[in-house]
Every structure is written in structure tokens, then in C-alpha cells.
Amino acid sequence: MKNETIILLAPLKDYREHKLCKYAPYWGFGHPFWLYDYEPLKRIFSRVIVYDYIERLPEKGFKEINEELVELVKIEKPKYIIWPSVNYEFLESTFDKIRELGTKIIGLFFDDEFRFDKYSKYWIPHLDFCVTNCEEVLEKYKKLGAKVIHVFVCHNFPLDVNWGNIQYKYDVSFVGSRNIERLRYIREIRKRKINIHLFGRGWNLRGWIPFEEMLKIFQTSKINLNFSGTKENKKGWKGRMLEVVNAGGFLLTEFRPGIEKFFEIDKEIVCFKNANEMVEKITYYLNHEEERKRIAQAGWKKGITTYTPLHMYSKIFKAIENSSSIEKRNNEFPLETINMPKEIRRIPSYYYLNWGNVFLIANNKGFWKDAFSISLFYDPSNFQTKIFQFIGSMPFFVRSIILLPYALLLKSLKFLKKILTLFPFPFFVWKVYYKLKAISRGENL
Hints:
By secondary structure, the protein is α/β, with parallel strands linked by helices. The chain has 3 domains: 5-154 and 310-337, Rossmann fold (3-Layer(aba) Sandwich), CATH 3.40.50; 170-307, 3-Layer(aba) Sandwich (Rossmann fold); 342-440, no CATH class. It is 47% helix and 11% strand. It has helices spanning 33-42, 53-76, 92-100, 112-115, 138-143, 180-191, 211-219, 239-246, 275-286, 289-306, 309-321, 342-362, 368-378, 383-392, 396-422, 427-440, and strands at residues 5-9, 47-51, 80-84, 104-109, 129-132, 148-150, 170-175, 196-199, 221-226, 251-254, 270-272. The chain has a 6-stranded parallel β-sheet with strand order 2-1-3-4-5-6, with helices on both faces.
């Protein structure tokens, strides 16, 4: 594949400070796609073209980024497009046009524990290959006729570690955003008077930390916590696991069924199943330094030799090139039958409604018109979209006054979260905050 061209659909920088973020506080990518996807792909293909759709979106709008991608494929004629799926940045019809040009599209779905039935499965007719890290949904993919590849999600950056000279700075640390489930665990740790350092959105006024600093925290923490909870109270695979292990950190992670297939528990990583067990193991390993270091080093060796982005992508493309290793589409389930029911179509409809509102409030080149149009394509009965579409037809100063409360909600979410981090507010206050955040994201379904 060294002589082939591939297009990667991914942002190559963090957009948290972009001007639109004040209207879309959920927008921005901390995931370093340049390390996790771009660099390993460069070692497999002779030419990797990155289409940074996040950069292009404020400049072109949804309609034009879809058209621009099709034109790029016509010019470059890549063998593959790889799409680390996020939301609905591209239309299904765009992928259909690209496949007609002879380019194969590979979709990566790494949240299938809770997204398969509402999101992933509806992309199957528009992709050539689906990649998932969730073993539980493999049969579902196959029954729907998908060519599916199962991998252990390897989002990490392997580091060299001087094991004889590690200078520890923290006893226990956790890097990740604050939510209700994690907060319960953290409060249990603090009840036991254990010193824990928290990094990430919602824990303190600082919020997000740079990627390089995060890796340093993993290396200089005696114990690094990971929680496996996802939406809908399911246990998922977190990229944080391998980020910790491949940086040389000791990993104490919430147990997730199947983890024993990838790491030897209590020899390469350590797991807990509830808050009491977590606290007991924190106490034990803080007092057994040599055993803790031995486990961390064994986990690091397993990680850097087996679970890196290069290993993951090599497995994916080896399976694709050797197509006999992937089950053929099941003719008993024609792909045309995978239609989105109305309750599912409301999800992308609200996604584009939300972006239309962002463009409308920011007065961003009229891109709100296309966003609202796509929203109504998915759900013609979306009354909220029709209302905002009507507001958009008004003179700018009139619609600015009408949209002021909505704009204030979007701009105030960051400030509200900072206030909540200053005091130990009860759980119901945080629930109100997360509900407001969900509404701002178009998730009020």
C-alpha cells in the first residue's frame, strides 16, 4: 500500500479557542488526530491527505464541505477514505457519490456500546467497511450485511520511560471531564482522606489541560484512575487506558468485561468493580511500591509492543486487503432495508438545527440556511427548525433581539460550569447543568 493515496477526514488541531466556541461550547477537539491517525497512516501509505472538515466548516458551511470533499476525491483518486466518525458532518449521499467514483470508505465507530442502535448501524449502507471496538455488536453488524472489522481501540502515544528515575509528583490522579458517575467515585476517595489530583473540564477553574502535560501526569502519578462508564449506564472501552499504559503509568481501571483478553489483570493493569474495591486497591498499591512499578512496567511493555495506533491500522488494512477474512454481506438483509425511523432521524435533524442556530447567532455568511435545510430533510416536521428558519428571514437587528436569550444560554454554560466547580453543589444542581448543556447541543430529544 506504499504507492496508494488515502484521505483522512479529521481535524489536525484543537479548535477550543475558535470564535464559534462561544456559541457552541461543546465544540472543539482535544483528541490529537495528528498523532493517533495521521502519523501511523503515513507509515502505511505513500500519501495521506487530510481533509480538516472542522477548519473548513466555518469557512464553507455544510453544503460546500460535502461538495468540496467529492471534488477532492475526483482530483486525487484515493484508494480509501478513512472516517473516524464523530457526528453527521457529512451527508450519506456524499459518501454514496464518493463510492461511485471507486474510492472505498472506512468508518471507525468506537462508541458502539451505546451508539450502535441510534447511530452506527444507519451508516452501514453508505460505507465499504465498518471498524468497531465493541465485540458485543459484531453479530449485529454482520446481520445487517456490514463488512466489519473488530479492533482494540488504540488511541495513544507510546513514550520512552526511564524506569530507574521516575520522579513521582502525585499519589492518585484522574484526567477526564467531570460527570455525575465519576463525581460519586471521587467523593468516596476523598471521604477516605486519600490525596487525589483531578484534571479536566469541570473539576477546577483551569479545565482542559494540554496533551503533552497529560502524558507527564500519567508518568508522574503513582496511580492513574480510569472509569469505564459511558452513556446509558454501559461500560465502554476508553482511550484513556492505553494513553496511561503506553506513557508508563500504573493503571487502576474500572472493570469492563473482555478487558482480560487484552491485558493480564493484576500483572499488567489492575481493575476494580465498585467504589469500595477501588479505595482498597488505591490504599494497597500506594503502600506496595515495588509491586506497583512492576505492574506498570509490564503494562507498558505490552502496550508499546501490541497496542499502538500503528498496530491498529496495520490490522485494519491487512483485513481489508485480505477481504476473505471479512464475512461477505448477508443477502438476507438487503442494505436498502436499513432505514432511519422518524425517532432516529430527529437526532441528525437537531444536530443541524443546532449548527444552524450557531451560524445564525454568529451571523456567519448565511450558512444557517443550508443547515436548517438539512435539518428539515431529516425531519420535515421539526417545528423548532421552522421557527428559527423564519427568524433567520428577519432583518439582522430584529433577529438579534429575538435570539438573545438563546445566545446567552450558549455563552453562559462555560461560566456556569466554573461557578459549579468552586463549591460542593449537590448532585441535582449538576444534573440541571448537564440538562442545559444537552439542550444547547440539540440533544433535548
